[in-house]
Protein 1
Amino acid sequence: MKIGKVGLGVMMVVLMMMLNLSTCSAWFGNKRKSGRNSILPGEAMSSRPSLMNHAAGSSIVFPIYGNVYPVGFYNVTLNIGQPPRPYFLDVDTGSELTWLQCDAPCSQCSETPHPLYKPSNDFIPCKDPLCASLQPTDDYTCEDPNQCDYEIKYADQYSTLGVLLNDVYLLNFTNGVQLKVRMALGCGYDQIFSPSTYHPLDGILGLGRGKASLISQLNSQGLVRNVMGHCLSSRGGGYIFFGNVYDSSRMSWTPISSIDSGKHYSAGPAELVFGGRKTGVGSLNIIFDTGSSYTYFNSQAYQAMISLLNKELHRKPIKAAPDDQTLPMCWHGKRPFRSINEVKKYFKPLTLSFTNGGRVKPQFEIPPEAYLIISNMGNVCLGILNGPEVGLGELNLIGDISMLDKVMVFDNEKQLIGWGPADCNSVPKSRDFSL
């Protein structure tokens, strides 16, 4: 999911709307007859049972790059196509579809780090279950039954129009096996974006819970368990994983809920605790989303938090810095701050106490360093924003900043979300595994 970041030009997260677009299908449909060589089923190594058996039960790990501030997003490199070519993708657990800016030809594309993706002609039919999962209703119509048209719209005014097709992903498994796996992706050939939300990427890596997401497709081919997760470092970078790449002994778990379309990693209800004391704000529905750099609370939780923060800071040696537009709320000290460690003593931790986890309530702790940044002006700024101002309504979104230095696990088989402290600077490796 993406939402426009208040005061910054970095893309963030919002609820995705998928619409069937019939107006462009005929134009792109001509490309299906362009004479491109299609990928034969036997060419994908994952179609060979012996290799699939070797990969089954293994895992996939990708290093990721970026940070919350000043970069504003995390990205991963995937090799796609024949021959495989590298693409930088924005890691987004809040949306379903993986898509690339695509030379179909491209009607409108932003600047990309690599040449535009050249699509295969292995189109997914309109009534395929993967296509159906991207449509707003079950009774959608097909302008062209031989291809799947889609449109994704984000609340930051970014949108992408494209067609769904199959192509080959080159994947390294932790047991040393390398496979070419044929999976679906979106060919986005018409993007609308605001310069204020632009950053140079080749596309989006959709890791949500829908049928078209990468983890769902890998699992449907028997290659990994339907479990994925990530570890984002406060120093920048980290890793994402598919399958079993975590130590469960130090994990807290809460059930996945279905507060929306069931395609997001949602949990709740939760109660907001500030500095170890109850705030009186409860029944919070939570979405964990790497597509958002920052965290968003609904109006009640946000106002309660601001009120408590103001009381805490009343006689502290930091004052409001309205001239700093990095984020809606910033404070300055007697001299510029160089790190969160210099200022975190003035702030108290936040905790989301989940009430549906049995007698022991799972606690998702958000220490000051997981909700504050130091701006390039040397001020400290609040990385928790007012959700209703960007169209999130009553949703509460836990973004990258509040998941730093934690391993986050999304177990779609057991319907659980887990978290625990971790060194996200160390990418897990097996004896014979190389990235």
Protein 2
Amino acid sequence: MEALAGVSKQGIRERIWDYMESHDLADFPRPVHHRIPNFKGSYLACQRIKDLEVFAGTQEVKVDPDKPLEGVRLLALQSKKTLLVPTPRLRTGLFNKITPPPGATKDMLRKCATSQGVRNFSIPVGLDSSVLVDLIVVGSVAVSEKGWRIGKGEGYADLEYAMMVSMGAVREGTPIVTIVHDCQVVDIPEALLEDHDLTVDYIITPTRVVATGCARPKPAGIIWSKVSYEMLTKIPVLRSLRDREKRAGKDVTLQADPGSQHPAPSTIRRPQDIPQSQTGYLRGSCSPLHGADTQLATTVCVGNLPYNARVRELKRALEELRAVPLRLTWQGPQHRAILHYADSAAAQQAASCLQGLHLGANALRVALGQERDT
């Protein structure tokens, strides 16, 4: 594909997406717009990573969950490497370790390498886990032979790398590989790159392997001034890292979010390593609606409140997480509260934000629905 003269990252993305669609270069899912494209020939391109010495010598590999990287995930499992895959949009942690069943056949390993397999055959990896990633494989929308990379615009790959730096899971020389169609290798003006942008060391396409020799420094950690308060509330593990770095004396001031407006909570925290399958409907003082569709629920039950909790403490937590209800029913003696929202969408969003929330030392139980009769 000819060199791109896009004046913005988005302009380059749109041109590549349009080109791949108009030339029928993509497989499911389509259209490729707003995605890391699953290009035709991606599986064969993934096999070429075996030719890289940096792959052969690795023990722990982090591979993005994108469809075109499925072949690399399978190779890592077949090679008995530790495979780490980021959780979608980092909702429940940084990444999961894929754990195939004992004696898994090749067909089972293929299932484990899919997005569904990642959900079904994995365990969460916490911030305090002793992880040292030897190789990172990321998806891209566009990449240049100099190593400049453009993702789909959400910034998760850049943020994941910065978070791994912060938790000590990567070294300065940890190689980064991207696998793309030949048409995705284009000229990218260096002026478009920012400090938080991730660069790559190797590009693999269906026809070639490019060692970029990129000398541009990779992100040295999380640039908190580029992190929004909204992002912090949506990504629990990011919140945990911020608390850790704040205790270490680092400047963790957020983007356009002065501390005086949104003080960092001192009595609430959200653990990074609780999978949503374990926190969605917890047993205890709250339970989902019985005989009704939880998709239609307009209330959220918050249970396991500390015995000495005050309603103002819960309200403060709700404000900080931007999950303020229309009305709050406080049931202190039962150590719970019922949050009432305008509609089911608002209730579901609030329940998602509150998953894993701690008040004091207590892990709160959060469930869509209503209080149990007692």
